[in-house]
Amino acid sequence: MRRIFAFALVACLSVAPALAQQAEKAPPQGDMKEGLSLLERGARLFMKGLADEMEPAMRDLAENIQPAMRELLRLVDDFNSYEMPEMLPNGDIIIRRKPDHPLPAPLQDPAPGGEIEL
Known about the structure:
Layout: H1 2-25, H2 29-75, E1 86-87, E2 93-94
Antiparallel strand pairs: 1-2
């Protein structure tokens, strides 16, 4: 009886390292998917935090740009009437009016007496 018990114990102990080696070779599939989902979740949280931080600055920028854009749209009648911007060698930027487009009506600033000072 002792021989059978000893034989069974030796057999179990000799099989255990072989099973451990097989388990180490095959990477578990669930861990890889879980890692990728955690990485995706982290990236989403990072982007959400960045958007939350930038929202007040973007709102201030929009409030400051809005009057300037209205003034630009008041001065420029139609963007199709102008050529592409051209940079001169000295750094100046010129936007020329296309020759086949008529000039817009002159802008009238409300001045007392109806005269325009030059």
